[in-house]
# Entry
Amino acid sequence: MNKQEKYERLYQQIKELLKKEADIIAKMATINAVLYHKIDYFFWCGFYRLINEELIVGPYQGPVACQKLEKNKGVCWTSVNQKDIVIVEDVHQFPDHIACDSRSQSEIVVPIKNNSGKIVAVFDVDSKTKASFDKQDAEGLQKIVSLIYDL
Ligand code: SME
# Structure
């Protein structure tokens, strides 16, 4: 199975699970549990929620992460400020990268909009290998996290 097929399969599986509960945090927790256990290069995955102009950690899987991210620093804030997906092949080359765990080498961050189009959270994934994430991860993850508000 190639990456695209794998994401399609995970999308269908997660969609079925998320239908069962409307609560946003429950949906986030379920997405993490499925992806973390099904994609082998996911070393850490989780949500940071934008609350009162702060990025505060939400449901996640993996090693203990920073609870709050310093404003306008790092990959997650870049994604919020650019309103776009950010892929980082080598986190050590990213200015202001916030290292919650020194083992992380590459990263992808996907912004999440609510039904009014406002960014309310980001989905962040770290890998222990450089350049783990590409366009297929971006498309696959975008589609999966869009289920949080669209379903
Ligand atoms: N590296 C992120 C911080 C979150 S951790 O990766 C879990 C950043 O630079 O925003």
